[in-house]
Amino acid sequence: MKKIHRMALTAASLFFAITSAHALEGDAKAGEQAAAVCVACHQPDGSGMNVPGGESWPALAGLDADYLYKQLQDMKAGGKRQSPSMMPFASMLNEQQAKDVAVYYSELPAQGGKFDEGATEEELAHGEKLATLGDWDRYIVPCKTCHGPDNLGVGESFPRLAGQHAGYIADQLKAWQSGKRDNDPQHLMLAIAERLNDEDIRAVSQWLARQPAQ
Ligand code: HEC
Ligand code: HEC
User: Fold this and answer.
1) Burial track 189-205 (b if 16+ CB lie within 10 A, e otherwise)
2) pLDDT greater than 80 at residue 2
3) Domain 13-107, CATH 1.10.760.10 — does that match?
4) Of the CATH numbers 1.10.760.10, 3.40.50.1860, 1.10.405.10, 1.20.272.10, which one belongs to the domain with range 114-209?
5) Do domains 13-107 and 114-209 have the same CATH topology?
6) What distance in angstroms lies between residue 50's CA and the mean position of ligand 1's atoms?
7) Which Gene3D superfamilies match (predicted)?
8) How much of the chain, in percent, has pLDDT values that exceed 90?
9) N or C: which end of the chain has fewer CB within 10 A?
10) Which ligand sits nearest to residue 48's alpha carbon?
11) For the ranges 9-23, 51-65, 139-153, which has the lowest average pLDDT?
């Protein structure tokens, strides 16, 4: 983890992302079977769903396999990533099945995110600024510094945000603020989330969800 700061800032991060693409030992075919219980929420194509007025089920398709596996472990353990919805399903999978479903979802093609059609031009401009330039007066580092150019993700540590559902991105930022999610290495995300206000969260999640997922 020590190297991550430096790596995220250099072009070497792209090389790292490519070479670590299949580090996890999982079988996509077995994963597809184990994922039969997941489709109700994450959908057969892994695109997830924003339930209007309700929970947001993240898109899993095309996310890094090691990242997905780590999240399953964290949600199963329950302490650092608390999700009453996911806990029973994460607990249902044994070690190998968790690897298999992670590889399975990572190989599905990424799809675009769901967002609120009513977001204003001003909101989107503010969201774009936070994601690409940050706000140095408030020590908000641009999302792309860690999540990669175009926020398409970097390796196993920094998930893709572009084309993820706006509702899910906002939920996670609030989960960091409330302590429901506390599984980020070196509190890299907490440091960002705690500096965002509600308008920032809405703006940045609406803008990110509109960006191409590939
Ligand atoms: C009842 C709906 C539901 C079902 C069924 C479900 N999930 Fe989830 N899943 C969620 C929700 C909601 C979240 C967001 C959790 C949170 O942080 O609060 C989530 C999050 C995740 C994440 C984290 C994604 C990320 O980007 O960090 C993974 C991985 C995941 N689910 C995998 C699975 C797998 C594999 C199954 C089946 C074994 C499954 N889920 C079944 C609702 C569901
Ligand atoms: C200093 C590095 C850093 C910066 C800057 C950063 N993030 Fe992150 N972010 C991370 C890390 C690391 C994770 C993965 C945490 C984990 O391992 O569970 C993450 C995860 C996330 C997730 C969870 C995605 C998922 O699939 O569950 C969201 C949402 C997120 N970041 C939003 C943002 C937004 C919005 C910004 C800009 C305002 C931002 N991040 C800036 C490091 C960073």
Assistant:
1) beebbeebeeebbbbbb
2) no
3) yes
4) 1.10.760.10
5) yes
6) 13
7) Cytochrome c-like domain (1.10.760.10)
8) 87
9) N
10) 1
11) 9-23
